[in-house]
Write a structure and sequence with these properties.
Elements (H helix, E strand, L loop, with lengths): L2 H27 L3 H24 L9 H6 L7 H16 L3 H10 L2 H20 L2
Helix pairs in contact: 1-2, 2-4, 2-6
Length: 131
């Protein structure tokens, strides 16, 4: 992979993450909390993938597992951040699959979503600093 390819791929992940983040904020305002949380997950996933590309100079793994992606990085994650990534993994599964949707929809209240949007904002800012 050329230096130009790496830079373009990193930018692809950064742009996608920014788009998903803005989408999550729009969904929060629209009171679509489960999908707001799902977009928070995607936003963080794309930042992690961009950082993997930056470090490895190669494509990121094809997975949605945030803790797995974080483990591929040469970055020290606090226990709190790892816990957050583990919790956010549920937003990917539970927002997508019918068996989990009903329970997740009940859990994804306004306050729950606001709390995770705030945590995601902080995590995103920390990750962006690593670029």
């Amino acid at each position: 992979m050329t230096v130009k390819d790496v830079k373009q791929l990193i930018q692809y992940w950064l742009d996608g993450s920014d788009y998903d983040w803005k989408t999550s904020l729009s969904l929060l305002k629209a009171k679509k909390y489960p999908y707001c949380l799902f977009m928070c997950h995607l936003s963080v996933e794309k930042l992690l993938k961009g950082l993997i590309v930056k470090e490895e100079k190669d494509h990121a793994p094809m997975t949605h597992n945030l803790t797995f992606l974080a483990g591929k990085l040469d970055i020290e994650f606090s226990k709190e951040r790892i816990q957050l990534l583990q919790e956010m993994n549920d937003f990917n599964i539970e927002a997508r699959y019918p068996d989990e949707q009903n329970e997740f929809y009940k859990k994804a209240t306004k306050e729950f979503a606001r709390r995770y949007v705030s945590k995601t904002k902080e995590l995103r800012e920390w990750l962006v600093e690593k670029f």
